[in-house]
Design brief:
By secondary structure, this protein is of the alpha+beta class. The chain contains five helices and nine strands. It is about 20% helix and about 25% strand. The strands form three sheets. A five-stranded antiparallel beta sheet has the order 2-1-3-4-5, covered by helices on one side. Strands 6-7 form a two-stranded parallel sheet.
Amino acid sequence: MTALSVRGLFKRYGRVPVLNGIDLDIARGSLTAILGPSGCGKTTLLRIVAGFDRADAGTVALNGTDVSSGRKVLPPDRRAIGYVAQEGALFPHLDVQANITFGLPYLTTGRRQRRDRAAALLELVSLDPSLARRYPHQLSGGQQQRVALARALARKPSLVLLDEPFSSSTPASARPPGPPSPPRSRPRTSPRSWSPTTGPKHCPWPTTSPS
């Protein structure tokens, strides 16, 4: 079954076209990466799917149900979507636990359930549960992004949108939890393999895709 279906999506800011007739199908249980240079519309597409922005034309369907079609636009809190913005977008006045459980309904989840849910999600994203009472300004950039990821997973969404969620993490900390990878020998390179103007010619480290 298709988890996400986008048809004929158009969006412009003033006279500048950002999305021009985008069609996209994503199967349930799959992992899809959207690549492109800065300013090509990746974030705009994710924000429209999440419900934070409106398209000028086109439709968005989740699990076969239209959530954005003409005048019918379902609000973000009713789309069962987890979204992690580039900057994390944590609430500065809430501690880590309150940020993670912010989207959980108060009427059906007690204080203990919310605390246990936050602790489980902190462990899932490889953060110490003792961070639960810290505030965003007391965390590193990488830790803030992991908390944002935990918040996106708190409601068990059917679709998760990640907008460069690990841009502030080191390659080692951004690796998913699991057994450590075996050490790899680093290929020898010439001392002149790096140029501040042209970039790496023979870079010994994995390079990231343009964003």
